[in-house]
Design goal:
Blueprint lengths: L7 H26 L6 E13 L4 E12 L4 E15 L2 E14 L5 E14 L6 E15 L5 E16 L11 E13 L4 E16 L2 E12 L8 E14 L4 H6 L7
C-alpha cells in the first residue's frame, strides 16, 4: 500500500505515542507491584506572550501558576527572556525566571533562575518540528524562614517533535491541531546525577496565527529522599497559552526560524 506524504504524520504519530507510553506503562506496572507511594498530581497554567525586538530577536514573557494538592504547595512564575534566530533552524535563548513557592508544611521558597541555551531544528519535508533544546540554568534558592540561599547549576536537554494533525497542505494553519512528544533529562552538577527525567506528550490547537493553546501531560521520574535510583513519582498536567503580540512571532520562534504567516 502506498502512503502519501499527507498521511505520514498520522501513522508516525501513533508510533511515537506508542513508544512514549510504553515506558510509563511498564513503570506504572512495576511501581504497582512494589506497592509504591501514590504519585502526586501537579497542575500548571502558563501564559507566554511573544513580541518583536528586531528582525531576528523575539522577546517573551512567562507568567505561570502551579498547584500540587498532594504535596501541599503552589508556585507563581514570572519571567522574561530573548530568543535569537542566529540562522534558519538555529536559535539561542536566554532569560531570567523568578518563582515563589508557598508550602503548607515547610518553609516557603524564592528562586531566581537565569538560563542560557540553544535550540536546533532538523530539516524535513513533512513539516514536523524535530528539535533539541538544551539549556544551562543557575538555580539560586532562598529559604524564606531562615533567609539562607543555596544554589546549583542544572543542565537540561529536550529531544522532541511537534507534528501537524492535518494534511501537509494545511499543516500549521489556523483552526488545525498538532501533537507533540519529547523526553528531557536534567543533570544536577551539585550531586552529579540525572534528576529528574520528564516524558511529555500532548495536543495543541492553533486558534489563529497569533494564538496557540497546548494541553500537555508529563510523566516525571525523580530521586525521592533516600533513593539512589530514578522512580516514577509525579504526573503533571499543563495548559499553555502562547500569544504573539506581533505578526509572525510564533512561526518564527517555533517553526525553525520562519515567519511566513
Amino acid at each position: 500500500m502506498k502512503f502519501t506524504r499527507s498521511r505520514i504524520p498520522f501513522s508516525a504519530m501513533g508510533l511515537v505515542l506508542a513508544v512514549l507510553c510504553a515506558p510509563g506503562a511498564r513503570a506504572a506496572s512495576s511501581s504497582a507491584d512494589d506497592n509504591a507511594e501514590p504519585r502526586s498530581g501537579e497542575y500548571r497554567l502558563t501564559l507566554f506572550p511573544y513580541h518583536k525586538i528586531s528582525d531576528t530577536m523575539t522577546g517573551f514573557g512567562y507568567l505561570g501558576y502551579v498547584s500540587n494538592p498532594d504535596k501541599h504547595y503552589t508556585t507563581d512564575y514570572l519571567g522574561w527572556g530573548v530568543n535569537w534566530n542566529v540562522k534558519p533552524r538555529i536559535q539561542l535563548w536566554t532569560g531570567l525566571f523568578g518563582t515563589y513557592t508557598n508550602n503548607e508544611n515547610s518553609a516557603d521558597k524564592l528562586e531566581l533562575r537565569p538560563f542560557v541555551g540553544g535550540k536546533f531544528f532538523v530539516a524535513n519535508e513533512i513539516k514536523w518540528n524535530i528539535y533539541n533544546f538544551t539549556r544551562l540554568e543557575f538555580r539560586d534558592i532562598q529559604d524564606r524562614d531562615t533567609g539562607d540561599w543555596s544554589n546549583h547549576f542544572r543542565l537540561r536537554t529536550r529531544f522532541g517533535a511537534e507534528f501537524p494533525l492535518a494534511p501537509v497542505a494545511t499543516a500549521w494553519q489556523p483552526k488545525t491541531w498538532y501533537g507533540m512528544a519529547d523526553v528531557e533529562p536534567f543533570y544536577r552538577f551539585d550531586k552529579n546525577v540525572i534528576d529528574p527525567v520528564r516524558l511529555r506528550f500532548g495536543v495543541a490547537y492553533i486558534v489563529t496565527n497569533r494564538v496557540r493553546v497546548e494541553f500537555i501531560y508529563h510523566m516525571a521520574w525523580t530521586r525521592p529522599s533516600g533513593s539512589s535510583s530514578l522512580e516514577y513519582t509525579d504526573n503533571i498536567y499543563r495548559l499553555n497559552v502562547k500569544i504573539a503580540l506581533n505578526k509572525g512571532m510564533l512561526q518564527r520562534v517555533f517553526d525553525g526560524g520562519t515567519a511566513d504567516d
